[in-house]
Amino acid sequence: MARGDAPRDSYHLVGISFFILGLGTLLPWNFFITAIPYFQARLVGASNSTTRILGTNHTGPEDAFNFNNWVTLLSQLPLLLFTLLNSFLYQCIPETVRILGSLLAILLLFALTAALVKVDMSPGPFFSITMASVCFINSFSAVLQGSLFGQLGTMPSTYSTLFLSGQGLAGIFAALAMLLSMASGVDAQTSALGYFITPCVGILMSIMCYLSLPHLKFARYYLANKPSQAQAQELETKAELLQSDENGIPNSPQKVALTLDLDLEKEPESEPDEPQKSGKPSVFVVFQKIWLTALCLVLVFTVTLSVFPAITAMVTSSTSPGKWSQFFNPICCFLLFNIMDWLGRSLTSYFLWPDEDSRLLPLLVCLRFLFVPLFMLCHVPQRSRLPTLFPQDAYFITFMLLFAISNGYLVSLTMCLAPRQVLPHEREVAGALMTFFLALGLSCGASLSFLFKALL
Fold it and tell me: Where does the sequence pass through the membrane (predicted)?
């Protein structure tokens, strides 16, 4: 809740700015994975522009570079690394440098990706340049997210919700951009160029929004606060985020650190035999309390990243070639996943089941491992080992619906349950631990995707 002497947010300009900044933080990851068919077409040595259609799958033995596996792994490893380095970086580098520098670097790297659409290049150098871009873009994105969440700690909680809403729509925005590019009617190369220019425009708008904040009286009022003055507001922000999580993308570990610090409900009284301590809580003691919830978080993301997008992006329609087969994967894989994942995360605003004392949560998490063989047995062309047991499109769509909504719900549920399992003064340590385990789960899933693809 804003303080009584605070100025008004005229025309909601600050809210719109943080919404766009949230969208911009997760555009890079989503635009790269949604364009996997384009990259695979380039990596099979396709020099003809007609083979560079965004929606055309190039899978099987000719996918010698394992692009979808590497793009997932090299997106998540920087996230894990910068999760560990956050405290050091944020103390050594000024906030403005971190945010503007990251945005400018992401913009330049995406501009390079767009320019490469028009450049004929052999597969080897193209793969190396693209993988380097993926690694650097996601490194800067990790720094950017953490820095912006630090600023949100001084703002009213509604602005954090707007930021997370922007992040939640990034995946849907990328999928819709692909569909519009494919349906535009222009040649395939121009379509791909327009697709990659779209996130450049998004990042440029994010830069403009960030530069405008110091010129808005409302933003100046909150962002100029010293950390000690902003502490109460920061706690309110974290509490609000714990109840209403609307981020639809599973790669924001900085958000977990923010949301797991404080429960929305009134802090419970300390037990008589376990008084609240003023000193720093023990990491080992906190881990003993939340280890099962943390393990569940790791397993949820391990399953998700092991098949999405590495395996799911390879699934094609079993119908005869036509419009539906061309649009099948963008709609049924990427767009459907992001919509249902966002819906699953929103469900925890209405109920939390099972609760922190139930053993059903580990069971539900382990049941998600069934999605691995289910997707591997869908209609993936040119497989060499496993048979195709679910060739019809309806199977894949059903699996994706359950896969995405369970991912969103279980991720949000574990983030809500973790602070309930520790004392109020231990929640900061619990948040840091959950941050690490979230990034660990993402990296484990990306690594396992190589094994599962090799088994096809």
Answer: 12-39, 70-90, 97-117, 129-150, 162-186, 192-213, 290-315, 327-348, 360-382, 394-417, 429-452
Write down the residue that tokens 């690394």 correspond to.
Answer: 81
Report yes or no on whether pTM surpasses 0.85.
no
> ∠54-55-61 over CA atoms, to 5°?
95
Q: Per the structure block, which two tokens stand in for 238?
A: 């974290």
Q: What is the rounded distance in angstroms from the CA atom of residue 340 to the CA atom of residue 351?
A: 17
> E-assigned strands of 269-418?
none
Single-letter amino acid, residue 39:
F
In order of their start, the domains of the chain are: 11-455 (1.20.1250.20)
Centre a 10 Å sphere on the Cβ of residue 42 and count the other Cβ atoms it contains: 25
Question: Please, which residues bridge with residue 390 across strands?
Answer: 378
Task: Give the CA distances from residue 183 to residues 17, 54, 192, 199, 358, in Å, rounded to whole numbers and listed in that order.
Answer: 30, 10, 12, 18, 48
Round to whole Å and give the CA distance between 21 and 30.
15
DSSP 348: T
Q: Are 432 and 257 in contact (CB under 8 A)?
A: yes
CA distance 43 to 121: 9
CA dihedral for 180, 329, 58, 407, sign (positive or negative)? positive
Neighbours of 200 (CB within 10 A): 19
Q: Which residue in this structure is represented by tokens 């919830």?
A: 293
Are 200 and 111 a contacting pair, CB within 8 Å? Answer: yes
pLDDT one-digit tens code per residue, 83-95: 777 767 777 888 8
- The DSSP secondary-structure symbol of 333 reads I
Per-residue pLDDT of 164-201, as tens digits, reads: 788 878 889 999 988 888 887 777 788 888 899 999 99
Alpha-carbon distance 257 to 260, whole Å? Answer: 6
The torsion angle over the Cα atoms of residues 173, 303, 329 and 184, rounded to 10 degrees, is: 20
Contact (Cβ atoms closer than 8 angstroms) between residue 311 and residue 376: yes
* 247 three-class SS: coil
